[in-house]
Fold:
Amino acid sequence: MRKVFEIFSLLVFLKLTNCFICSSVYANQADCIEAIKHLEIITGVRTFAYLGEEQKIVDRSVNQRGFNGRGVTVHYLESVAQQLGYKTDRQSWNARMRSSGGSIELTNLIVNGPAASTSAPTLIIGAHYDSINSDSGSWMDRHGRYRATPGADDNGSGVVALLTLLKRFRSIAPKLNLQIVFFDAEEPSPTGVFVGSRYFVNHLVKNGKVTSVKMAIILDMIGRPSRLYPDLYNLSADKISPSFLIEGLSAKQAPFPFIRESEQKDFINITDNQNFNKAGIPSILVTDVVSLRDLPDHYHTVRDRAEFIDWRYWESIVNQVENLVRKIAR
Ligand SMILES: [Zn+2]
Structure:
């Protein structure tokens, strides 16, 4: 009984500290608490009620073993967006599995954000919701239970940023149409890499809609600052001038945008932004990976857990992306 009481006290203490940290550090306590809840659901720390059953997202990878983590994640993201009053579309297709020759259904979730008019250009803000499951990303614990990477930083951090931005953009009247997209299958899997965003961009090309897209902003890993450069994040852009970005991000705020022309080549092709660049759509990548030589320890491992997210760092990046979007869209 005493043990139970001790555990209970510890849980109460942790909860209080959580709230205390939120209220003392974050400009927007409600957003912070909600983002933590979303991330805990996406990374399987908590369950949520769906279709009358408590669901737990264990594994968001394409080659998940018996779980449908990505499917349940899409349901969850869809329900959050719809509760905020947005209309959502599922873009689903069958992707070929290179290893087996079979196929698997993949789904991008498109949220139609605040719109200007049908003729106005579109601003896309995207993040991949799948996580990796490879030898480095999953394992059996000593009880023989299967464990996968929770993918909290990669890329739960980008996903909950999009949910936060959806909440903040509810009341804006932009001059551009905002489209918020949760991409499937960014991580290496038997279907390839960057597969969801490639399908999305190919669809734009096929429908002659490339020129109607003004820009894409991709968020991929924005929750854990680099050990070498804790106040920085990387912001790589193709076809967009650095001065525009510095101005747009109001560089007086910390963390300061980190733009190194010489390193940009390394970063241009590391995630979903690659597909937009290839199609000629200007894109910006926002990531906590400051340089490829400084990949974080938790990268693609089971240690990529929600409890290690630095919410202060995360929130300051979200605020700057929000500023940038407001600037571009007004
Ligand atoms: Zn990854």
In short: The radius of gyration is 19 Å. The chain has one domain: 30-329. Residues 132, 154, 187, 300 surround zinc ion (CB under 6 Å). The longest strand covers residues 87-96.
